[in-house]
Amino acid sequence: MPDPDHWRSRNVHWHAYVEIYESSAGDYSTRAQRLAGKPDIVLFAPEDAANWIATMIRRHIHRRAIRLIGSDGRVGHIGDEQHIEQALISNLDDLCHGNSVYQDIPRQTDRLHLWLEAVTPEQCPEAKHHRENP
């Protein structure tokens, strides 16, 4: 059974990056390119990282109705609280296992991409924030 605190044994923290693209078919930055740049924020606990994504979704998503799978014609919504809570739970599970999380947020005229890169001390170009934030 996978360890839900695997992030802790690997000493993982997350570098968060925000990018905006005109469409979902963009020429995205690579992990190496993102890690070579300065993160928008550095997060040290999976709960903080998951909450950061949820906050960004709430702030930026273009809420819209979608037809749910099935023949009864039910409608759901992208960007409602149920959708955000579902993303929070799923993201928290991934983060607790020490994984990176990538989130694509459709907005009115473009798409916001959130990249939470899981980083170990050996991979981190900024050794100083390990000492500042144990």
Overview of this protein structure:
By secondary structure, this protein is of the alpha+beta class. The protein has one domain. The protein is 34% helix and 26% strand. The protein has 5 helices and 6 strands; from the N terminus they run αβαβαββαββα. It has a 4-stranded antiparallel beta sheet. It has a two-stranded antiparallel sheet with strand order 3-4. The mean pLDDT is 85.
Please write out the topology.
Layout: H1 6-9, E1 13-21, H2 31-36, E2 41-43, H3 46-60, E3 64-67, E4 75-78, H4 81-96, E5 101-106, E6 111-119, H5 128-132
Helix pairs in contact: 3-4
Main β sheet profile: 4 strands, antiparallel
Order the strands across the largest sheet as they lie in space. 2-1-6-5
**Pattern of helices and strands:** HEHEHEEHEEH
As a whole number of angstroms, the C-alpha radius of gyration is 16 Å
The best one-word shape is globular
Question: Low-confidence parts, pLDDT < 50 over ≥5 residues?
Answer: none
Number of domains: 1
Number of strands: 6
Structural class: alpha+beta
| Portion in beta strands | 25-35%
Overall pLDDT confidence: 85
The number of helices is 5
Helix coverage percent of residues?
Answer: 25-40%
Distance between the termini: 28 Å
